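## retry 2 of 3
previous attempt timed out at serialization; input unchanged, resubmitting
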Amino acid sequence: MNEQTNKSVNYRPGSSADDYSTFLIFEETLADLVNRLGFAGETSWGNEEQTEKMWQQRRPLYQHLSQTAVQFWIAHQDDQPIGFSRSLLHDGVLELTELFVKPGTQSAGIGRALIERAFSKESAESVRNRFIIATSDFRAQALYLKAGVFPRFPIYYFGRTPEQVPFETDLQFVPLQNDAKTVATLGEIDADVIGFRRDADQRWFLGNRSGFLYVRNGRPVGYGYVGEASGPFALLDASDYPAILAHAESTAQAAGQTHFGVEVPMVNETAVTYLLSRNFKMDVFMAMFMSERPLGNFDRYLVTSPPFFV
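## retry succeeded, writing output
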């Protein structure tokens, strides 16, 4: 596809060759957002050693996103990448995973041009719904509103130093196997809980994270991934959250992790109530789930961490 020009900015399709440059744009933009909103949290930006460490952690994720994206666009100015947008299409549902423009070049129409390329209804075939997990940047949220997606609920991160937690349950915790049968089972649970299958993402989770299938009386009733980057968790019955979160925290402590946390849709009242009872601390950084139409049953779900995609 030929490059398209908007004044001095050029737009071209992205590829895996852009993984590192898009990572740097994300880190710089996140640091700027944290600073503008007055958050106390630190980022890797400005510390070469920390940035390289973060890149090594995030490299598999960026590879997955670039390889599975239905739309991936890079904005260039003076031959330098200054922004990018990317979206995934699963089971007719289009998710804008990223839209970031470098500080100093924002509010110039670049974000609008990038979102039109990656997130319009015409950007992919057979789209039945669209959504994004958005930052709290009001300028970006205005773009999303104009694109036709609307706030449904906030997402907060809850974390603490893990401990061994006693609990009682009739669930079986079966380690997930990376095979076609497991992917099919997880797809059925996803369709019930989040409203769509995303087999490519599940194959990536299975290859990069450790998790459990939750089984009751021989029937799968949920799944969850536990580790340094936890989630997602999906359950057919929200009342099982206290048990599976106690199990996840205990598993993290046994593995020697010094921190355990989860990304929580605030409509998941059962998980919120349990986490607060365990003195988990809420991070001040909030995300917003925005969709074209209501989607899924997120009162039975915990989002992937970090929340690049649901």
